[in-house]
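Session log. Operator J.P. requested a structure for one protein chain; no other inputs attached. Running the standard single-chain path with token output.
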Amino acid sequence: MRHEKATRLLELARLLASSAEGMTLDEIASSMGVGRRTAERMRDAVRDAFPQMEEMEDPPTKRFKIPSGLDGIFQAPTADEFAALHAAAEQFRAMGATGRAAALLNLEQKVLSAMRAGVRRKLAPDLEALLEAEAISIHAGPRPFEDESVLGAIRDAIKSLRRLRFRYQGGSTPGRVREITPFGVLFGRSNYLVGAEGDSKEPRTWRLDRVADLEVTETFGAKPEDFTLQAFVERSFGIYQDAVEEVRLRILPHGADEALGWRFHPTQRLEPLPDGGVLATFHAGGMRELAWHLFTWGDKVEILGPERLKQMMRDELAIAVAAHGAPC
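Structure written below.
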């Protein structure tokens, strides 16, 4: 128990040392998964161990941080942490996300080079064993487009609050030049720029592999203050954005165990049914991609609503049947 408490206090110390603006007591409690009184005791214990901890007024509360960081003795990564970092890099590489894979591998090398030689030697056998014992399972799907010059320009525009101009080879008028205020980037099976065209504030998506002649303009462009990328994602199923509706799915009893461990959508609610099945409800747009996903559930799922999703499933099934030479 003493060892566990010491580990938790060191975890909090790392959080306070890595935070630029500091953390409030409520933020400490949330991050550590404890109540406010326990957060106060943990803060006091960390202050005893690290007297350089600062307290800053941020009315109506206070913030706490360790401004000078922690000594290397408190920061040595474990073999498990290195293995997780390497696995994430390998997963990106296997997906075709070479830029992000290279960034993680560069980070790995920087951390290793900053460690004492004795610590590296002690770490090496465990790390080698873990890397040999773990592999990434590759799923079929498109390789995402990741051009570092494109991603770099988008990031520059976001940081400098400027618009982007490019020729877009998709949409209803392929080849037209667009001027976009960038809001963010969605990474997935295909990668998309999220932004608004011209003076509009309505977010849209633009596939990065269809962007050409990209440049950062001198025109000011900032996302609306009330826009968050996470909220935008939660309006859709996958990447597709359309009218948001309540989706109701009945998972039949022989698929219930799988459904209870499945994440259909961030807003989902799962309710066990008397017959052993599961009722899944959530709010989303993107009915076409949802229909594609539900096809993989076979006879385990019944669409209760909306009607638009039912019709989308019927249409997609009819197309698939017709393509294979069988009558609809």
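Operator note: The first helix runs from residue 2 to 18.
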